[in-house]
Design a protein that fits this description.
about 350 residues, alpha/beta, 5-stranded parallel sheet, 7 strands
């Protein structure tokens, strides 16, 4: 072997070693995420094609939807793959990445993000993107869902988190090298604190026409993506104690009706049917605590039944879902003990 070939082989080996080091170092130094959405590490541990319904959106999805309660009420497996303050552009890439792992009958998107700006806060953007699998969908989320000033740290996570070396824990190394365990809450974030809501209020926001059309275009892309995968796109607004302006809602409903295949549900219309108690069931005006989330999730289960979505996945694991129900109930018991 001549000298030039040896140098090329040595260079290739060096590059492979360098890339491997960067990948491992990035996985170790990135803060581990167990809750508050964007839990891709746990989601990718789920058995392939084991979900009947997957929920998307922002915190109004991962704080208000309890998959264990849905399973308990109708036997459908579901997961909440949402993220904080999530713009709809990033939601699109979440849905696209989900289809690499799951083939649900329906995708349900909480679309309050229609009123958000093009980008979330820096912290929320990091959370939404930093935990996505490192592939083309992550790159798409960066380019379309993050300002250019944040691209470097999102494309190369070691840049964002290199200063954590002296803060690393055993979990950082173990999870970074071997991966996450399955999330027994299936993407739901358990909240127990209670903030009584004195009265229902209109949501306050400012949005340009350009911003509205931009966000609507991403909903159209999500719907098209679902159609390509023979999956029903169901867009909804979560029940809460804050409502959309009537004229804005009428326009949104009309625009959604023009998107092929989309089904739209405004659960604000059904809040009285859920037996929601404003004095006990809210964490804040937009998010339920577990009491309200359980009532909402039971109503969701009934709605899913009425939509004709049936459990058809051959890989559903009753033992795992019973474990999820038991875990959820144990959190309630712990919370009740602490309150007393």
């Amino acid at each position: 072997m001549n000298k030039k070939k040896k140098e090329i082989i040595a260079l290739i080996i060096f590059l492979i070693a360098l890339i491997s080091f960067i990948v491992c170092a990035s996985a170790i130094t990135t803060p581990k995420r167990y809750e508050l959405g964007a839990n891709w590490g746990a989601f990718t541990e789920e058995k392939k094609d084991s979900m009947d319904v997957v929920f998307f959106g922002s915190s109004m999805a991962y704080c208000n939807v309890i998959p264990a309660v849905i399973w308990e009420n109708n036997g459908l497996s579901s997961y909440v793959m949402a993220g904080p303050e999530q713009p709809l552009s990033i939601t699109y890439y979440y849905v696209k990445e989900m289809f690499r792992h799951q083939s649900p009958s329906a995708v349900m998107v909480e679309i309050s993000g229609i009123i958000y700006g093009q980008y979330a806060s820096e912290g929320a953007t990091k959370a939404n993107i930093s935990y996505m699998p490192y592939n083309i969908n992550r790159f798409g989320a960066i380019i379309n869902g993050a300002p250019k000033s944040e691209w470097l740290g999102l494309f190369f996570p070691l840049y964002n988190y290199h200063d954590r070396w002296n803060k690393l824990t055993e979990d950082d190394y173990e999870i970074g090298l071997t991966g996450y365990d399955i999330d027994l809450l299936a993407g739901y974030h358990f909240l127990s604190d209670n903030q009584p809501q004195p009265e229902m209020r209109e949501r306050d926001f400012e949005q340009t026409e350009e911003g509205y059309q931009y966000n609507l275009s991403w909903l159209e892309k999500i719907a098209q993506l679902c159609r390509e995968h023979n999956c029903r796109p169901i867009f909804y607004i979560s029940a809460s104690y804050a409502y959309f302006n009537e004229s804005y809602l009428e326009r949104l409903e009309a625009d959604l009706a023009n998107i092929e295949g989309v089904e739209f549900i405004n659960f604000m219309d059904n809040i009285d049917e859920m037996d929601i108690d404003a004095s006990t069931d809210f964490y804040d005006i937009l998010h339920f605590n577990y009491r309200g989330a359980e009532k909402f999730s039971r109503f969701l289960a009934e709605t899913i039944d009425e939509l004709g979505i049936k459990a058809q996945n051959p890989y559903n694991d009753p033992q795992l879902w019973q474990e999820r129900i038991d875990h959820y109930r144990s959190l309630i018991a712990q919370s009740s003990t602490q309150e007393s």
